[in-house]
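Page 37, top half.
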Amino acid sequence: MNPSWTLEVEGFGKIKQASIAVKPLMLFVGDNNSGKSYLASLFWGVTEWMRRLDFSEDDIKTDIFLRNFLEQEKGKPEITITNEVFEHLLPFINKRLDSEKDTLIQRILNNQEINIKRLTIKNIILNESLVLYKDDHPNSVAILEKYKLKAKGDYFLLHKKAGHSHRGVSSPSILACAINALVIKFLFSLYFPASRTGFMLTYKSLIADSISSWGIDKEPKSRFSRPTIDFLQRLTKLEPKKDIYHNIAESLESEILNGQIISTAIVANDFSYQPQGTTQPLPLYLSSSLVTELAPLIIFLKYSSEYGAIILEEPEAHLHPAVQRILIRHLIKLVNRGIPVLITTHSDTIFQQVNNLISLYQHPKREKLQTEFGYHDDELIAPNEVSAYQFTNTPDGTDVEALKQVDGNGFAVPTFNQTILDLSKETIALQRD
């Protein structure tokens, strides 16, 4: 079940306007200080806001279709949610979002001075109907018994996710459960901020300032943004046990780190790096920036499944181009297991690697080339699973442009192409003269 929707933004920081279509893999690229991190943080916050959203019968009483729908379906053991339901529900979602948008932005960025002119959700499309089950439905009872859960009179949507037995969202409200279903793959999005080395070396002291804040609806003591506070707090909640994505984490350790990240829990989690072939772990402050930059991603893949999406700022930081290529292959493995990934990046290597994996996915000689270059099926990605956006600074703000794919060969990225062209011309001129 892959519902699609679009987030539209106007007058947000430097961003004049943007229209971001949700895809399993999204890439933000462009000028420094152009608003990429702002928009990535907003995406984190909007999905947090949506999963807490609910409507009473009084809230939607002006819509005859929704009112009749609730009256007819209430109490049924099985309820089907169609595109028509969302077509009628969307105006109420956007009315609530409009009334709360400034407060939401200020909470996300932890700054009371920031506002937004327009924030809208559009184009909700289900590629198949959603089916909600009452927890006394036979389909639900088996799952509840398997996981030793008690029925609470809820409706819930069961979502089969690669690697998971089942994952779902539940609520006593039909409409809340339906709205949750829109963002089910983005539930508990995990935001990896830039400068991860600094956070990994100092996170225990930083936790002291932020531990009283959890989620989008509580006041923080820290001055960090909400996604960053959420990231720090989750580090303290991890348990040193293998999770369902541990094989991807271990592959990253083997292919990039040549060692492993070790977690020990005393008061709060301690992390260290043990190089391959040694018996003595190193504290992270004695490890290379390669290790400390990748450690957070590896740690969460090893020890936690309490997230539904990954938002990763500048994954190329401190990584050699060859290592960037390996990392992207592993991130696409996560996408193919049902974990959406949003990346902000300045790396032409990352974009070209994504382009190659798109191109190979549909190449007429795929099998031959896949064997030649050593790619696995789960490292390739379909063109319609990826979107990319370029952020360009202008005198009156940032333009955000959806990049187009070129003949099934991935994205042409003007911000990279022009720079590479200028550098090439300069190099040729210097060598010629």
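Page 37, bottom half:
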Amino acid sequence: MKKLSLIMVAVFLMISASLAMASTKDEVQKRGYLQCGVSTGLPGFSNPDEKGNWTGLDVDMCRAVAAAVLGDATKVKFVPLTAKERFTALQSGEIDMLSRNTTWTYTRDTSLGLNFAGTDYYDGQGFMVSKKLGVKSAKELNGAAVCIQAGTTTELNLADYFRQNKMEYQAVVFDTSDQTVKGFEAGRCDVLTSDQSQLYALRIKLANPDDAVVLPEVISKEPLGPVVRQGDDGWFNIVKWSLFAMINAEEMGVTSKNVDTMKNSSNPAVQRLLGTGGVKGSFLGLNDDWAYQIIKQVGNYGEMFDRNVGAGSPLKIARGLNALWSKGGIMYAPPIR
């Protein structure tokens, strides 16, 4: 009997936990704003200006979800987190979602109680060196001191690459990306390694950006994207389809500038995207215009990419793999139908 009681208690606790976890959307709507975890400052992805206003691709992902859920992309509280803090903050409920240049990996997806809601930037790890070293390839870095950020996939990738190429290195570890670039600039290391997108972002923080060069080698796959807690499929769907809506919008030619005109489109795919016909927002527990609000207030994926990291930004990163699948890249979203 005692054993049965313990089982009943365990079942009750599991059901209670499930119900608690299943209310993220309701909690966000009741609170009136989204709590979104971002980096401590990475140009192009999540970075505050001198007035504390956050900008970047990861920031826009947060705003897209706020637009879908609250109808207002400005209703976001950005929570800056180091790489070591980010998963604990999400697991504990301190934030509703994580949008912080975070790589989707097997271990993270299966052992941390988290779900990756898609890839919003396909990246790969690289190396940045001072031009005065005269190094042209990462295979010339034997014996180098390497600045690296703690709690990231770059640590294991670095060890694997040097071991595979029978080279030695000395790791110089920092807690934040700002600390790594300061360490590099101060000469504490010969090399700074991170995702290539991050290297270009950190390079512009140097007093003399032209003194450093990013080497050509890309040594890993780094699919970056938003993350949510497991156990709340409704919230997982909202974050996932907020990203998919922006990708589909770019494919259909729907932008923040023409979205009002496109609401009158006779194209069934556009009608379904903008909530004027076909499938309904109730499938996500949202208003029918949830995707319209994202596109109107944040833009499609191409607009988000260009202004933050692409041609319209200081980083000037080429679309590459992040181009649409129909334009030579691998950016692809399931259809809204």
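Margin note: The two ends are 51 Å apart (CA to CA).
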